[in-house]
Design brief:
4 copies of one chain form a homotetramer. With 308 residues, chain A is α+β, with helices and mostly antiparallel strands. Chain A has helices at 2-15, 28-31, 65-83, 99-103, 114-123, 129-144, 153-162, 164-175, 183-194, 200-211, 228-241, 247-253, 290-303, and strands spanning 39-44, 50-53, 59-60, 150-151, 196-198, 258-260, 265-270, 274-279. In chain A, a hairpin with a 4-residue loop joins strand 6 and strand 7.
């Protein structure tokens, strides 16, 4: 109760910062979101979830989905299989950058930049695109604790038609032999999982499973949905590369593994303690939710959430 | 007569250097060429063409065609129209590099690197792809002094299917707003003109027209096929950017405007004096014909061809 | 007892990997170190330190000292003062790289790459170089729990005379206005603190203070040597940028904040649990101790040390 | 007579463009120059020199001197000796860039960018700095047709004290083994020859010697001051790299080998026809004289000076 009051108060304080950002303009369907919206759900282990602000708003996952496909690829191919194809290093460049692909290695530097995430998507097992897509949906639904995950077809079609930069990246990867098979099919699946739709409570529940080492909370059955080691890998990447090229700053200021998307979503995982889902469509120049970052930094200070 | 004997002797001397190079391996149809082949035709103003070595071999134009499409685009849109879309600077990077597109400007640095040449191809006027293609063919045929230019369908299909790097470049340009319209259509036309086929005599005749300021030699009718100013522009680019990222070295050593292709073709223009066509499929690590470069450097020294 | 036996066994297993590396060859005085040496000291909170292998060997701190000067600069200027001058992001480039300084910003990306560390050194307060130097020595001695820290004059002079790349970096920073004052004086102080000398037990004790949130262990008096927030900042950088451009990989594989130096030293901090000091002069191509990394990864798995 | 009238008229037309530029602000002594000044001297073979505007103004050579030291280094070490140490390619980057040194090769790309020119300066033969300096002065005086070349001590001291970026470049080159010996001594000699002082007539006379293949005009004695081949090399570099990173554009628009300096000086060589000296301190963002470039482009069109 007190927590919920605090949360609301802090959220309203941070909402002011939304005015400093802008919604993503390169995907028409994202540009329409309300730049003043800010919502959060916090799901602590052994507690009921609490929420504040526009936490009921639906949003597409965008880059947040990269964490889930990374986990699935690890479950499909193991650590070695995945790291044959993508590296483990932050780049210092923006998420769509191709510099290091040309300058250093055709192998994407890590699984959370676009080049790496497209490669990871291409590795999801399945006899057909439909089967791969079903596996992704079911896996994410199990993390979010729902029967079925939403899908925003308008956003999907909008990205599929206009995202020439990701198409450029994918053909570059095909050229260097990193991507096998049909580039357009991989891109299609990538755009599809970016367009999956959630609210803050669902995102916080998925984060909670990761905070709990891959295990559902006991009240939902306590099943191990993901091997603990893979959760460890994913949250490490969230800390070092999860917030685009301000991951380092967010680690210093908040110290929490988190992954952002250009819809304004952020999923934050506080190991052994809680999962957090945030939405705030106004983005800073790095592509992160302005209000969301401020709110998570506030929570980290107030509740002492930093891992360090 | 004496010229022809000299030419044969020098060519045989330079043939030895072919062993230092390799045929282009990324286009299967090019990899099959004879790496020991070396041929040349020299067409001086007011003289009969002379030739030596494997000058009768057919070869695809590859990047040599970029000079011709540049001329056509200049005739279609004028100087200002063309340089709104591409720059005028050498890059210091390899021909397929995307670095400067990301680091400096989405606008290609010059019309002879791949990014610039694809942009130029997209500007060729015509109501349909067929019309554009016919205009390119007829224009090049007029320069080469033939009824019809050959076309190597195997090479075209091979590039179209496997050239993922050019596809990556083109989608990057689409993303930055440099390319309008249908990317795949532009790429298709680009691969088509790269696959046009000639022999050395035809290439030397086209070079001669440029050496003659855009005018046919008198014995062919003396028509002005290209405005003199556009020839001046094209030969300037040949000198500063025509030999990939060893253009500077070739300018110092030979001092002749020239354009090479990964088939091993080189077209060289000695203003007011002669046109030269060379074929030598063994390439150095920059993508230039090893034997061809040596032979042109030799001719430059023997006949004092440097512009400087 | 058992711990010590385990430690010795694991160390000997990892010693084999030393053969894959080489001692730093660009500093003559470092090149002479024994490439087969491998030593470790582990100091857990509330326990006596344990050690194994060549833990008594003396080594210079090199880049490990960057963590200490960062702490001192934070104590001198506060968070805001420090981050006006250096950023918070990993670079993805090697430690001596100047690329991002030219391409992105004259401000160094983080305080642990050379450009950032030289900037930090220039910020240490003191009326004279001697006073600055004394402050650094006394601060580090207090962390290591000794009266006085050693200093290797041969290494210092060797670096001072031959380290042209750091001189190049420093003048670049002077040119962009990041460095104030006398470049040579800042470099001199930088080379001096890189040449401070320790053994594994001393390094483990310094790490323990950081693991303990900046407080001495109770048995040494329990004084707060560094404010907790600054320790948090320093260990965050150790995790995201501490192991040169394989920091991301070390975070995934070991998950422990650590800082390496080209002497083969590594200082590792396991928050709230233990401090570790390692020496192993044989380096991999990124500049990290080959045997040291293997040993820390082993400890992380065996003792479950990952923060994630 | 008519020529002089034309020249004055065109110069006054171009003077208007000076307002678009600014004097070099990073060297205090250069910043004081009159931004409205524009002067030219044209010295055609077999004719008396003509001049217009502020042609009597004195200016320091700055980067124009790089052409002269290149010639002297070629005379000291031959073609092979020089090109062991510097390359032949344009970079596409600005004159002080270090990118390609780190990304491609420690060897400077060409002798006219700062990295290459500092290397060339280090190669000038002489038992002492004084002897080297005398050799440079005497050589340039012979080209300019004067007893003694001026020297601006204020500019020299200003650059020596503040040019940290060139110092950074030089130590980088020392680190990669490109520079031998004492870096500060090489830099000193470099700053000295950049500070040599001329007027337009002297610069035009030096250019005329190059236009005449290295030979003095007959009326001055007709001695071969520089071997013809070395002049050919120098003018080739002037065309491909002489106007910083707008060399390509100047080649397309004017087609004349030329070298600019940040004092606003330009030396232009029209092979076999004329030498031109220009001064106009207002610079564009690439570091070239705004009015000077416009004036040379105008002359090229009016007098048909393009080599192409």
């Amino acid at each position: 109760m007190e927590t919920e009051l605090d949360l609301s108060r802090w959220l309203e304080e941070c909402r002011a910062f939304c005015a400093e950002g802008m919604t993503a303009d390169y995907i028409p369907a994202l540009a329409k979101a309300d730049p003043r919206a800010l919502g959060i759900a916090v799901h602590a282990l052994g507690h009921e979830p609490v929420s504040a602000g526009n936490s009921g708003n639906l949003f597409t996952l965008q880059s947040v989905s990269k964490v889930f496909t990374l986990l699935l690829a690890l479950m499909d191919h193991g650590e070695e299989g995945v790291f044959e194809r993508v590296g483990m290093e932050p780049t210092g460049d923006d998420f769509k950058s191709m510099l290091k692909l040309e300058l250093v290695s055709g192998k994407p530097f890590n699984p959370l930049i676009n080049a790496g995430a497209i490669t990871i998507t291409s590795m999801i097992s399945g006899a057909s695109r439909a089967e791969k897509w079903n596996r992704i949906r079911e896996f994410i639904a199990s993390l979010a604790g729902v029967e079925e995950i939403g899908f925003n077809e308008e956003v999907y079609l909008s990205e599929k038609e206009t995202n020439y930069r990701n198409r450029s990246l994918a053909y570059f990867l095909k050229d260097s032999g990193v991507l096998d098979g049909d580039v357009e099919e991989h891109l299609d699946l990538y755009f599809m999982h970016c367009a999956m739709e959630m609210n803050c409570a669902q995102l916080a529940r998925a984060a909670l499973v990761l905070a709990n080492g891959g295990k559902e909370p006991d009240e939902s059955g306590g099943r191990q949905l993901v091997p603990r080691r893979y959760v460890q890998i994913a949250t490490t990447f969230m800390l070092t590369c999860g917030m685009y090229n301000s991951s380092g700053e967010f680690a210093v200021k908040a110290g929490i593994p988190a992954k952002s998307g250009v819809s304004g979503a952020i999923m934050a995982v506080v190991p052994n303690r809680m999962g957090i889902g945030v939405i705030g469509p106004a983005l800073n120049d790095k592509g992160n939710s302005v209000g969301g970052i401020r709110l998570l930094e506030k929570l980290s200070r107030e509740w002492n959430l930093s891992m360090f």
